[in-house]
Each structure stands twice: as structure tokens, then as C-alpha cells.
Amino acid sequence: MKRLLPLFVIFFGLHLFLDAQPAFPGINPVFTDTIVPRIDISIDPADLDAIYDNVESDIEYPATFIFKTEHISDTVYEVGFRLRGNTSRHSGKKSFKISFNTFNPGRKYHGLEKMNLNGEHNDPSIMRSKLSWDLLRTFELPAARSNHIQLYINGTFWGIYANVEHIDEEFMEKRFGNQDGNLYKCLWPADLKYIGSDPDLYKFTAGDRRAYDLRTNVEGDDYSDIAHLIDIINNTDLSQLPCELEKIFNVPDYIKTLAFDVVISNWDGYAFNMNNFYLYHNTSTDKFEFVLYDLDNTYGIDWFDIDWAVRNIYSWSPGSGERPLFDRIMEVQQYKDQYSFYVQQLIQEILNTSTLFPRINYLRDQISPLVPLDPFYPLDYGYNQNDFLRSFHEATGAHVKYGLKPYLLTRIGSANLQLENNPIVPVLKYLDSNHPRMNDSIVISAHVESDTDQTIVELIYSMDGETVMTKSMLNNGLTPDITSIDSIYTTSVTGFNQAGTFYYQVRVKKPGDTFFDLQPCDPIPLSIFESLDPDLVLNEFMAGNDATIMDDFGEYDDWVEVYNADPEPVWLGDKYLTDDLNQPQRWLMPDTIIDSGGFFFIWADDDNRQGKNHTNFRLSKGGEELAIMESEDRNSTVIDYLEFGTQTDDISFGRETDGGNLWIPFDNTTPGYSNLSTSSPLQDSGDNPLKVYPNPFTHGVLFLNKNVSVFLFDISGRNILQMTSTSQIDLTDFPAGLYILRTTDGESVKIIKH
After folding, report:
1. Confidence category of residue 636, pLDDT binned at 50, 70, 90
2. Which spans in 309-377 are helix H?
3. DSSP letter at 450?
4. pLDDT in tens, 21-41
5. Global confidence as pTM
6. Exposed, middle or buried by CB within 10 Å (0-12, 13-18, 19+), for 137?
7. How far apart are CA 183 and CA 391, in angstroms?
8. Range with top average pLDDT, 104-108, 464-468, 554-558, 684-688
């Protein structure tokens, strides 16, 4: 039976439209915080001694990992285990990194390649980091998922740790839908000052690492993008800064992040200590994203003899020019007003003590019984159970100048007194469109935040730069808008029956304002493509293949099915498949002819060494774009395109009919053959449905529960076996993989050979 999931998408012809704002992945079992999960590490004692004897080493030692809750008990063998952190390596309570793919490349646990177990030795409450990550997510900013866990090593209780999601390319894909951009881990002294036009100048080192440490695309080692960003930040005339900076940097979300940083007194970040942040070049928008990292030195923890709870929110950096990104943002009045707006929003809505304090109490009470048992908790500062309980209500001395709750009350009070409450120009961000072809609706959306509910939002557009027209954008929950409570304003434009370029901008104002704010500064070009022959379409895909189909290498990888709806055979050898229109020639399809009405199956596994139908990219479970492209000599035009949202494990997404307009999810997948068969595989039919056993199987003969005439199809849809009136089939000599057994009466069963 087909199962229709609650997908937040709108359909226009063959194209899906989605807003471009960051995604927020759900809390999977690894990060559950309704209980305190237990993690067991079994490791050779000699290896454990070596880890503690060489604290600066990043050598990973093999270990066995066990994750336990009331309902889960998972064991993963041969994980990598080592220390992590900087100064914490020399603390009594150390932090650890677990890597699932060190000894088994490509392996993940619940979608994670690594886990960070942080000792939080500076924080007697063991709460500041966890609370910060939770509040960031509530404030709708990209943030690591986290929880508290109990750690045991070789059967001995090692204490309470903060399990914080590792920030890497997987993190970026889950938030932004791509992972192929440059990701820079920025540590002290990453001040974003201009030191020259040569990109290699920004590869300078501090200690044994780069201050701007490129973590992806390391073979290319190309720093030209971050050098350009730093140049724009430092050297652009202030009157032109908004136009130039917003072309390459997600300024609104950085301002929002800055407000969060200052309110929780994260002095160990960029704006004060030029430390602990990531810059990611988001290839979907071609803009940099600013992502926070390491949030334990917050809420009044101090090493500088500064009262962070009352420090002026507009004078956060050490001095003018020391932190050019912060300083120049504050010099633009419109940005400064937005910053004030976000500070006020944060302290009024997110840090509401009537709901926040009970949440803090809940998390405190979860771990309180474990604190006296933690053998490493007292080692660094002599903390005990009484210090743990006091730390929520009062200072514990030394570097902990505030209890957690008193800090929040003091900070909220001081920030309110300092706020300059000027009216703001509505904040417009996440401007996005669909990718239309001739006669399709052109759909434009924008996320708008304002200090009034009566914002006026308009689309300004033209075709090929001719007559400029205006159309209202609405947030009313009516087509094409999705819902009236998401701050996303949407409109659609029709009537374009020829190929060309559609130019658009969006302008916003509040009632009573004289002028609109027009964004971006230059109109955005949007190509309208011709309807192209051949009629080759994306027909079905799965971006979360956890246990449905295994390839010839024993791997459960993402996959895509292409269908030829053209009346003639089509040669694929000059066509491309891509998940990024900025890279139209991403993966060249193989030298294969697909018959009319035929299917071609592709593994999207980023491992094209495994065969001609294995791509050099993976799909994003968090949602992204996917397209079939013409060759470069045919202008890389789009043959078929879709954008999809967050996907569910082992549920495919496909056209209800092969080549049709409507896309729906299938719990009975049909990789390599007709989607019309989804009503029959694995379903009972009649009083005596076809059954096959054993299934899955490894060797020998399969037995059927009745005598029938059958056809056997492989993953590519080829009929490879036909038998008349039989109750058993010998598949001993057939390779491992997925097969479909279909009777002449239309019943079908999916068969898996390991």
C-alpha cells in the first residue's frame, strides 16, 4: 500500500519548490535527552595507557562501542578512539572522540561518522554547553545536537559527558543540503583581518595547525574564497558593504548568531577571542555560513577578570578594528538595528525564565544522581555534589563568577537597559525560486522577519530585462504559500511561453514607511528552459537507504532511477546527473542506451570506482536538488529537475505513474522497474498470496507456496528468467542483489540475495 507522508512541498508541473533556509535534523536516538544513555568503550588497556601517556597525540586506537538506552542496545566493532580538544587534553577529566569510519571507511552510526564526548571540566554544572546548543536550535540557527551520556571504559564508570554532534561535512549537508563547499575550522587567532590578496597568506599557522584550517576539499587547498570574503569585510567602502558582503555571506544569520553569542557571553568565540567558529561556503547559495563551535565558556565563566553579564552588548570586541567583521557590522546602522532586534527577541522569547528554568531543572535532575559517582569530576577544581547543586544558583568561585540562573537574570536585566530600540528595516533572507521551464509557474519565496506583523513584501520582476512589473508576496497559507505562520512570503508568476531569462528582486517595508528596502542590490537572473527532447525523467529515488537494497559490494547506498518516457531509445552517454546546478557536468552517465519505456538504475554513493552506474556524489537525506543535464555543447540545459525535502529511511520518493507529474513517497520501492508495481510487491493478494522462502537468502533453492508461472527481473528491469508452473527456483549461480519475482497473474515479491 502506498503511504502518503506529511511532505511540506508544493507541486508545479514537474518541479518541486522548497525554501532555502537551513534544515534542522530531528533528535535521533544518539542525542535523546529524555534519559541519560550509556556508552561503553572496550579497548586494549595498553592502548588506553598510550592515549593517556601521549595526550597531544591524535592516534586513533581500535575499540568496541556499545550504545544503550531502555530500548536500544547497539554494538559497533572497530571504532576509532582518541582524546580530543585543546587545553582539555591536559585536564584531569579529558574529552574523547569516537570515529565510526576510521577502520571501516564510509561507515556511520545513525548517520554519524564521529561522536564528541566532552568532559566539560571547567563547568561545575556540566550544563552550559548543552543548554547553549538547545537554545541555538530554538533560535533557528544551525547548531549541534547534544545530550548527556554516561561513559564506561572497560567496564569502569568514567563519568558524565556532554555528547556534542561533530561539525563536519555531514553536519553541513544536514543543515544546508550540500557538503562539497569549503569548510574552514577557525581557531585562535582567526580574526578575519586582511593581510594581502594572495590566498596562500591565509594558510598561516598557530602552533601546529592553521588558524583557518580547511577541512574539506583538502587536495585542492584553494583559499581564494575565504581570501575574497576577508577582502570584502575589510576593504569595502562602508556605503557599499551591505551590497557586496551580502553577495557572499549570510549576513542576517551572522547578526542573529552574534546576538546569541553576546547574550550568553560566549567570549571564546570570534567577536572577542577570535576563536571557535566555522565558515562554510554553502554551494547552494554561493554564500558563506557562520557556525558556532565550543560553547562551554559561557554564562559567566571568566578567565579575564571581566564581568561578562554586564558588558556592553555594542562594545563586545576588545577594540575598534580588532575584529573587523563585528566592528564593521556595528558601523552599519541598519545592521546594528537588526542586531538590537535579535537581542530583544532572544531575551524575550528564547530566554523566558518561566519556561527556561524548569527546563534547566529537568536536565539537572537527570544527571544529579550520577555526579557523586563521577571519578573525574573532582580532579580539576575539587568539585563535589554540593558544588554541582550550588552552581545553578550561585558562583562557585575562581573562574565561575555566576551561578547559571543568576547569570541569566543579570544578563537579561543589563541587556534590556543597554538596548537601543530603533525600528528596524524588515530582515529579508533565504530568497529562493524554483527552476521553471516554459509554461511552468515561476515561484519565488523570501523569509521576512520584522518588528511588526504588517510587513509589505513585493516581487519586482521582468523578462529579459524588458517591462518591469510588481506583484505582492503573501504569507497567508494559500497556494503557492504553504503556511501562514512561517514568516515565508511567496508568490507565483505565469504566462511565460518562451525560453529566456527572468530577473527578480524583492522589496519590503512596513506600513507608514516612505521607502522600500530592495534586495538584493542587483536583480537575480533565473533561466527559463525550453521543454527538451528527449523526454528523460527522474522517476524514483531513495536518499536514506538504510536496509532496503544492497549493492554488489554489500553496501546500502542512495539510489536514483531514470525513466525514458520518449517514444524513441535514448543514448545516455552524453547526459549528466547532478545534485547541484552550479556543477552541471557533475557525473557523466555511462555509454548505455535506454529503450523507450525503459529504466536505468544508478547508485548515488560517491564511489564511481565500483562500476559504471555508481556516481561521484551522494544524495542528501536533508533535501537538495537533483537534475538530468544535457552536455556542455548543448548549453548544459536541464532535461529534468526536482528539489526534494527531508527524506525518511527506506522510503523512496517517486512519480505516482512513470513519467507523470505527481510525486509521492513509496514504502514499497520499485528500483529499476515501473512505479505502477508499487501496489503489488510484498502485498497479500487474494486468499492465497504468493510467498517465497527463505527470503532474504544466501544459497540454493527458493520455494514458492504454490505452482505458478513466473518471470524474474534483475535490478535494471531485465527479464532474466522465465519458468512455467513451478514451485521452486534455483538461484545458486545468480549474483547477490535485488530481484523481482512476478507471476503471470500480476503478483510480485521482492527477493534479496546476500
Report:
1. confident
2. 324-331, 333-345, 353-367
3. -
4. 787 887 788 999 999 999 999
5. 0.75
6. middle
7. 36
8. 464-468
